[in-house]
Specification:
The structure holds 2 protein chains of 2 kinds. By secondary structure, chain A is an alpha/beta fold. Helices cover 49% and strands 10% of the residues of chain A. Chain A contains 18 helices and 8 strands. The radius of gyration of chain A is 37 Å and the shape is elongated. A 6-stranded mixed sheet of chain B has the order 2-1-3-6-5-7, with helices on both faces. In chain B, strands 4-9-8 form a 3-stranded mixed sheet. Classes of the chains: A alpha/beta, B alpha/beta. At the A-B interface, helix 4, helix 5, helix 12, helix 13 and helix 14 of A face helix 4, helix 7, helix 8, helix 9 and helix 10 of B. Chain B: One of its GO terms (molecular function) is alpha-1,6-mannosyltransferase activity.
């Protein structure tokens, strides 16, 4: 043992089992008061009286502590170590033996208690963190959540045209929170695109077509994602627990239809019947292979609806995004094409057969239910939201024209929260409902 | 000051599991072997499944004897004399026979029903090429040849003269204005020969869609359908489908990336009387093709008459009948 070492240590056994003299310790330390000096001597006296081993193995906690300190780096100098270790080992055993009987009962009880504690901790962690674990798993490449990017339009017509009022802010907050929550839950990427009226589009009168540019930008930004889900800002995802995979992608062939004659409000003649086209272009279902589907959209009562649609990364999509806006088409039609990019897509679909080979439709209520007020008063089973069927998404299309966007959004948000209550909330609600029905009937009796 | 404490004596410094280390080592080896074995097994399964699934279904296998190149010629039988059509047909058939290609002769009148009114007939070349593709689904390249063009040197095969990857890379004109003389959009300088699906040339004024090569596939359908859009047809481009092509090539990069421009003389040399040839774009003896450009549009020109001497010389040197 180097001579300087003992001075820095509190009185304790030397490695060899001997004791550092208290005098030595005191002498090398800085001046002490009398009280502390006597305290220390008495301590070291205690230590001298009782061998240090007697305090070992005396309880669970100190044993753990020793085990901990044993794992720290240690220095070995003394050659006579082995002998003493043996001795200590023997003593430890002896002590365990004597205690075994008396300790066994409480110990068993203690393990049970400990097990219970562990179970509780596990349960708490499960309740608290399991969703987090699952969600972060979905975000990994294995989980596959990142293969979908949700693109949400925000800030429509903001900036140059007008300042947003409180209602617009509220709408934006609610709708973005909605998408954020869904994206987080399923590990999808969320891309919020700013549709501030930009000079680039305004002077060419082509707002609306920036959709194509935004999707292209998102494709560049997330090079590993496969599907891009465009959502207008006045949409609301009603069912957070419904994954896109289960809802659409897993059964792409069976949930979608490629023959527009299934529902054809625009009366587009399908399939194209020109004799000079290839058989695939002339077939109503294209090649019938779901892997060739690159655009999934739905139709409302007046044709294509691009409030909620999916686009797959593919060469086909590159081409469509490229050809979607064309100055010659635009020059001739911009007065007619009230819905801009939507009408343009309808035109391309109707007149360029290659488009049809990549397009599939979903029944509207699959991804794009309408509230009453859009496309009629709410009775159309093809179009309007049904709470009973737990429709996936509501698109408050056209609410800015004479309807109240905020009121509709608020109503659907509350409805979504209510139909997706947890079991506990359901239980509470049913209790209070029961109570209300009792008290309500009593009150009625009183009134009557 | 406190230093790290030297260790206290441990009662358990001789852990009871020392003898077991050998066992665990053995165990570890076993485990390793099992893991390696399992991995190998998985790999084999993966490869097997990969190969069994990647095999094409028999329907997609190209039938034997399918011509690699289809020559598409569109005749406007109202505007061309029978003798003219016969000359051209013989010229094409001889060439196709020599190289194992096939011909697709189309009639403008077949496609007019799809046009709408007041649309120049020249638009018909687009559905004609699409028709050729539908008729020969297993052929790869489609060579649209203007009915006012003669193949003068049938010894040249298009596969090595034009369609070879290295040939494409060495011949294609990079970073030049797409539409002459000075359009802002220039051909890409980084296009690879394998990616090219559309080969054409320029004269002094335009891209010439009279002679071009196009590769069958989704991209070709995309180009032809977009090019044939009714709103382009009704727009009233001065040179009809030619200007429409100028337009879409400049506005849509997905089209430009698949396109290669060749020097005019490679497959589109102009006769001496044809206006608009680029420098070194006029026909010289030994060239692959001669074209009598715009011979119909001028009153003082007669296509058949201009063609006659060249047809004769071709007949003399290549057909001993």
């Amino acid at each position: 043992m180097p001579p300087s070492r003992p001075s820095s240590r509190p009185p304790s056994p030397l490695q060899g089992g001997g004791w550092s003299s208290p005098g030595l310790t005191i002498g090398s330390s800085s001046p002490h008061t009398l009280a502390s000096w006597s305290g220390e001597t008495s301590k070291s006296d205690d230590a001298r009286v009782y061998p240090s081993f007697s305090t070992r193995n005396s309880g669970f906690f100190s044993r753990q502590k020793r085990r901990l300190s044993a794992s720290l780096p240690r220095f070995r100098f003394m050659p006579s170590r082995d002998y003493q270790e043996k001795e200590k080992l023997g003593r430890g055993r002896w002590q365990l033996k004597t205690r075994l009987v008396s300790v066994l009962g409480p110990l068993l009880r203690r393990t049970r208690v400990r097990l219970l504690l562990v179970a509780i901790v596990v349960l708490v962690y499960y309740l608290r963190f399991w969703t987090g674990v699952v969600e972060s798993y979905r975000r990994t490449s294995l989980g596959g959540g990142k293969s979908v990017v949700i693109i949400v339009a925000s800030n429509i017509e903001g900036g140059v045209m007008e300042w947003k009022g409180a209602r617009e802010w509220a709408i934006e907050r609610v709708t973005l929170r909605n998408k954020r929550k869904y994206a987080k839950h399923w590990g999808h990427e969320l891309e919020i695109v700013n549709l501030v009226a930009r000079k680039k589009y305004a002077h060419e009168w082509r707002e609306g077509w920036e959709k194509a540019d935004m999707i292209r930008e998102a494709m560049r930004k997330y090079p590993n994602a496969e599907w891009f889900w465009w959502l207008d800002h006045n949409t609301f995802i009603m069912e957070y627990s419904n994954s896109l995979r289960n809802h659409i992608f897993k059964n792409l062939a069976s949930v979608t239809y490629r023959d527009i004659n299934v529902y054809n409000p625009l009366n587009i003649s399908h399939p194209p019947n020109h004799f000079f086209l290839d058989p695939r272009s002339r077939s109503p279902d294209g090649d019938g292979d779901p892997s060739s589907i690159s655009l999934i959209l739905s139709q409302d009562c007046s044709g294509f609806n691009l409030g909620s649609f999916f686009m797959r990364r593919s060469e086909w999509s590159d081409r469509l995004l490229d050809i979607w806006w064309d100055p010659v088409l635009y020059e001739q039609k911009h007065m007619e094409w009230e819905h801009k990019e939507q009408d343009s897509l309808e035109h391309l679909y109707a007149h360029q057969p290659w488009i049809r080979s990549g397009v599939a439709f979903l029944p509207q209520r699959h991804i794009n239910s309408f509230p009453p007020g859009a496309c009629g008063d709410g009775n159309d089973p093809q179009i309007h939201y049904k709470q009973h069927d737990r429709d996936f998404l509501v698109n408050m299309a056209g609410c800015e024209f004479g309807r109240d966007c905020w009121a509709e959004l608020y109503q659907y948000r509350e409805l979504s929260n209510w139909i997706n209550r947890t079991h506990w909330e359901r239980f509470k609600d049913s209790l209070s409902g029961f109570w209300k029905s009792i008290s309500g009937s009593k009150e009625k009796e009183k009134h009557s | 000051m406190q230093f790290a404490l030297p260790p206290r004596q441990l009662s358990t410094s001789h852990p009871p599991y020392i003898p077991s280390t050998r066992l665990s080592l053995l165990r570890r080896r076993q485990l390793k072997a099992i893991a390696v074995f399992g991995l190998a097994l998985l790999t084999i399964f993966y490869l097997l499944s990969y190969f069994s699934f990647s095999r094409d279904s028999p329907a997609d296998v190209t039938p034997a004897g399918t011509p690699n190149v289809v020559i598409v010629t569109l005749f406007d039988r109202e505007g061309l004399s029978d003798s003219h059509i016969q000359m051209i047909t013989k010229n094409r058939e001889y060439y196709a026979m020599k190289h194992g290609y096939t011909n697709f002769f189309a009639n403008t009148s077949d496609y007019l029903y799809a046009f709408g009114s007041d649309i120049p007939y020249s638009w018909a070349l687009i559905p004609a090429v699409r028709h050729a593709m539908a008729t020969h689904p297993y052929s790869t390249y489609f060579f649209h040849l203007n009915p006012h063009a003669l193949i003068m040197n049938p010894d040249i095969s298009v596969t090595s003269h034009v369609l070879d990857r290295k040939r494409i890379e060495s011949l294609m004109l990079k970073d030049i204005p797409v539409v002459p003389p000075d359009s802002v959009i220039k051909t890409f300088s980084h296009v690879k020969g394998n990616d090219v699906e559309f080969i054409l040339s320029q004269d002094k004024e335009d891209l010439t869609s009279d002679n071009f090569f196009i590769k069958q596939g989704d991209w070709a359908h995309f180009l032809l359908d977009a090019w044939f859009d009714p709103l382009y047809r009704s727009y009233g481009f001065a040179k009809a489908e030619k200007h429409a092509l100028d337009h879409i090539v400049q506005w849509h990069p997905t089209i430009l990336t698949k396109m290669a421009l060749f020097p005019q003389r490679v497959f589109n040399a102009y006769s001496k009387d044809s206006p608009g040839a680029v420098v070194n774009g006029t026909y010289q003896d030994g060239d692959f093709i001669i074209r009598f450009s715009r011979c119909q549009t001028y009153d003082n020109r007669d296509c058949e008459q201009e063609m006659q001497p060249f047809y004769k010389s071709w007949q003399k040197s290549h057909r001993q009948n």
